[in-house]
Amino acid sequence: MAKRTFLTLVAGKGRDIGQVGSRTLIERAYEQLRDDIIEGRLAPDEKLRVEHLKAHYQVGAGTLREAITRLVSDALVVAEGQRGFRVAPIALEDMEDLTRLRLHIEIDAFRQSIRHGDEAWRTRLQQAFDELSAVEQPVRAEHRMRWEQLNNHFHEVLISAHPSPWTNKVLRLLSRHGERYRRYAIELTDSGRDVHAEHRDIFESAMAGMEARAALALEAHIRATPDLLVRATREGRQVLP
Q: What CATH fold (topology level) applies to the domain 2-87?
């Protein structure tokens, strides 16, 4: 009986280890695919051919399909019924829709956070702002991925004094999509935009407890990217593929 129990436990552990390994491979493939979509290495509307991609990402077809299915849930990939998958398209109208939704959610969460913020929150916010400031004077294309990480962290800390798990989940999803458009905005070197000054205005107003001014600064900051891309498009520049 003892031997049978031991063997059963070993077999169970083997299945657990296999399941963990499978999840790790799926997670790695998912993150690599997501980064390649956001960075434009997988272009908008590009067909995702599993048989071709599995060698590039060094995973099996089943693992790759699972990772792609997760990206469908993130709306970064579009399923085409029996025809496979494509990278989700990008368009100015889509960007403006994302922006409206983000404004609606993030500004309310930010105002709530300022009302409930304590000294620990202000300390976290100071640290996040200092780390972000070190890489965005100015924001350079070659540092953009590191900047994106610190920028996302700064925005998460802004709303962290009044936490809402669902708000955080939705805003993270919107941020991933917004990153696809920010990449093109950062490449417009003649935009005249001072992102650091925008963040400093948000930060200082929040630290001072000036809720209305902070909310207005955040709104202007979020609107700046779509406004910049729309203006460049109207000037006849091809800013999106």
A: Arc Repressor Mutant, subunit A (1.10.10)
